[in-house]
């Protein structure tokens, strides 16, 4: 056989048809792939815009007179309203018994019982004082019994109490009555009781209760701040 002779392999019509079909499929795939990717991107972008517009529409329903606002002005108004709501919530919480994350004790002293505070009929206001004591700490089963014993040892009479517990924390507001048995001047050390000593004794007792509650909750992963002060 000569070197330049070519070997010819006949191809059947079926094999030739399959070859053309494969070539056409590859060509169509290469042309349609970018088109499909572009369509998917446009659809995803449309869904994203629809979702944003839906959220903006909900915000417009919450903000008065916002129909003609553009998106930037609407979002600015929403931010301002959120700040105002947070400020109002902070002001309201000052008058509500809501436990906080901070351990604290506050004592307010009223030497003259003439501020519209309801005193039980059997309690004499002469040479008597009222103390408003507020403390917040970790809740525990024996907290109230310990509190009762502490107040009894200091000869305080509880004429008002407000308790609130939330998330393992408790806040207590007490209105306490103290009467000088010696009929002395409540502002004097001689012949009566010393107000400063009385307040300090109560502060020490409540501080111990708060500290015990914090120690009893050491098994939790907590980092509570502590504040103990007399209200001015």
UniProtKB/TrEMBL annotation:
Domain annotation BHLH: ranges: 36-85
GO molecular function, one term: DNA-binding transcription factor activity
GO cellular component: nucleus
PROSITE patterns given in the database record: BHLH (PS50888)
Pfam families linked: HLH
Taxonomy, superkingdom: Eukaryota
Entry keyword set: DNA-binding, Nucleus, Transcription, Transcription regulation
Biased composition (Low complexity): 29-40
Protein name (database record): BHLH domain-containing protein
Major subcellular location class: nucleus
Cross-referenced PANTHER family: TRANSCRIPTION FACTOR BHLH30, TRANSCRIPTION FACTOR BHLH51
Record keyword Cell wall biogenesis/degradation present: no
Region (Disordered) residue spans: 26-51
Cell compartment(s), UniProt: Nucleus
SUPFAM superfamilies: HLH, helix-loop-helix DNA-binding domain
Natural source organism: Saponaria officinalis (Common soapwort)
Transmembrane segments: none
């Amino acid at each position: 056989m000569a070197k330049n002779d070519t070997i010819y392999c006949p191809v059947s019509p079926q094999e030739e048809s399959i070859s053309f079909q494969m070539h056409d499929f590859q060509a169509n795939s290469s042309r349609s792939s970018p088109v499909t990717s572009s369509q998917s991107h446009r659809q995803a972008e449309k869904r994203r815009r629809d979702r944003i517009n839906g959220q903006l529409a909900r915000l417009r329903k919450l903000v008065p007179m916002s129909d003609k606002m553009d998106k930037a002005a609407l979002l600015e108004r929403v931010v301002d309203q959120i700040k105002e709501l947070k400020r109002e919530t902070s002001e309201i919480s000052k008058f509500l018994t809501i436990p906080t994350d901070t351990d604290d004790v506050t004592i307010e002293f009223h030497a003259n019982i003439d501020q519209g505070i309801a005193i039980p009929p059997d309690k004499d206001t002469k040479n008597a004082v009222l103390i408003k004591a507020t403390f917040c700490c970790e809740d525990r089963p024996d907290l109230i019994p310990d509190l009762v014993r502490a107040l009894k040892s200091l000869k305080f009479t509880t004429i008002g109490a407000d308790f609130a517990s939330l998330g393992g924390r408790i806040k207590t507001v007490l209105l306490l009555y103290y009467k000088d048995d010696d009929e002395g001047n409540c502002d004097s050390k001689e012949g009566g009781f010393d107000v400063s000593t009385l307040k300090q004794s109560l502060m020490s007792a409540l501080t111990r209760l708060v500290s015990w509650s914090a120690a009893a909750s050491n098994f939790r992963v907590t980092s509570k701040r502590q504040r103990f002060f007399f209200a001015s």
